[in-house]
């Protein structure tokens, strides 16, 4: 099981994570100040229930899945080159955290919470205003190779832990910590960095009712597995400004 993304937690926390990550849902701070929150360990599967294989991911495709909650979208991308390791980032409250890099054979697979930290724009079935733009793609404001929120054009660097590098957002994307096991299966295990989940749950009550039945159902933790689909399959209209 790949461990590169695991942080140097305090001895007590590290032991607890190793034994039962699904039992730990509180926010943890590692010895080095990293902001790290273990959630349920969840396997990424396709619509038919087949495991997603890391080596089969298309390069620069947006893959949407919900984690760590039933109603919180994340996007996984297999980049053209490895993500950088040991990137120090700073949340808007000043908390430092360390991004350890991507997973997969070449360290090119990354995943981030797809909720913009500025004003919570996120992919929806009707359309997506938030997604990864491939390296050959462009927007009016930016060249590609980055996550861009089309609402106010914040840009986030996928190879540097989701660091904000443009626009009005004041902090980066929360990273979804992935593991790839010996059979090439992909698991989501934790979230690194500042999250906007509570603000998101407070803001989109009608959306949760429409797509999940109600907000209570959207706030449930994903358990055991989460379905993965391409953004072009998930969203009817992918907006690029
Ligand atoms: S909501 Fe994303 S940049 Fe404003």
From TrEMBL:
InterPro entries: Rieske_2Fe-2S, Rieske_2Fe-2S_sf, Rieske_Fe-S_prot
Keywords attached to this entry: 2Fe-2S, Disulfide bond, Iron, Iron-sulfur, Metal-binding
Domain of life: Bacteria
Stretches of the chain forming a coiled coil according to its record: none
Ranges of residues in domain Rieske: 75-187
Stated name of the protein: Rieske 2Fe-2S domain-containing protein
Source lineage: Bacteria, Pseudomonadati, Campylobacterota, Epsilonproteobacteria, Campylobacterales
């Amino acid at each position: 099981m790949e461990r590169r993304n695991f942080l140097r937690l305090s001895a007590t926390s590290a032991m607890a994570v190793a034994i039962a990550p699904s039992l730990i849902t509180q926010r943890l701070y590692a010895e080095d100040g990293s902001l790290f929150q273990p959630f349920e360990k969840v396997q990424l599967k396709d619509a038919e229930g087949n495991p997603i294989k890391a080596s089969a991911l298309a390069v620069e495709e947006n893959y949407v899945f919900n984690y760590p909650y039933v109603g919180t979208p994340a996007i996984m991308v297999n980049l053209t080159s490895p993500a950088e390791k040991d990137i120090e980032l700073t949340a808007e409250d000043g908390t430092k955290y360390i991004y350890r890099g991507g997973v997969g054979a070449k360290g090119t697979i990354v995943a981030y919470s797809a909720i913009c930290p500025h004003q919570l724009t996120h992919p929806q079935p009707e359309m997506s205003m938030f997604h990864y733009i491939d390296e050959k793609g462009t927007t009016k404001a930016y060249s590609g190779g980055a996550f861009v929120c089309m609402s106010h054009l914040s840009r986030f660097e996928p190879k540097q832990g989701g660091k904000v590098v443009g626009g009005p957002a004041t902090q980066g994307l929360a990273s979804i910590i992935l593991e790839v096991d010996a059979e090439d299966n992909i698991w989501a295990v934790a979230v690194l960095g500042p999250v906007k989940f509570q603000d998101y749950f407070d803001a989109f009550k009608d959306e949760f009712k429409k797509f999940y039945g109600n907000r209570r159902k959207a706030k449930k933790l994903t358990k055991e597995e989460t379905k993965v689909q391409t953004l072009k399959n998930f969203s009817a209209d992918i907006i690029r400004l």
